[in-house]
Amino acid sequence: MTKESDAQKLQEKYMEFQTMQYQMQELQQANEKVDEELINLKALKQALEDFSKLKEGDEILVTIANGIFAKAKLMDSKKLKMSIGADITTTKTVDGVKKFVEKQEDSLKALKEKLNEDMQNIFSKLKNSEKELKKLIKEEKEE
After folding, report:
1. What's the number of domains the chain is made of?
2. Rounded to two decimals, what is the model's pTM?
3. H/E element, 7
């Protein structure tokens, strides 16, 4: 091969390597977001568990805005209002909301598993690509 085609091949391999590194970073960021969501769902499940122990007439704190609360008396301890988007709410039982949250959790766990598989595949390709790059660099230096 000519020196020019070797240099071009090296450049192409390096670009492939960089692309895979970028993909790996994107997958790692997505994985971190999934972890955050799983933590949020765990906290939500605990809040639902705590709520299920309340009785009508119990005094509670209601969130008005982030960090701002109002005292209120609980009128219904069996049902919750749940947003389904576009300023639309639906009424669900505490158990119904728990099941919904568990489905979200299951979906996130499946996504996390897929992300981990994808990261392992890319990591393996990165290792192979790195070996090829080192070999090409060595060959170029020897010429």
Report:
1. 1
2. 0.78
3. helix 3-52
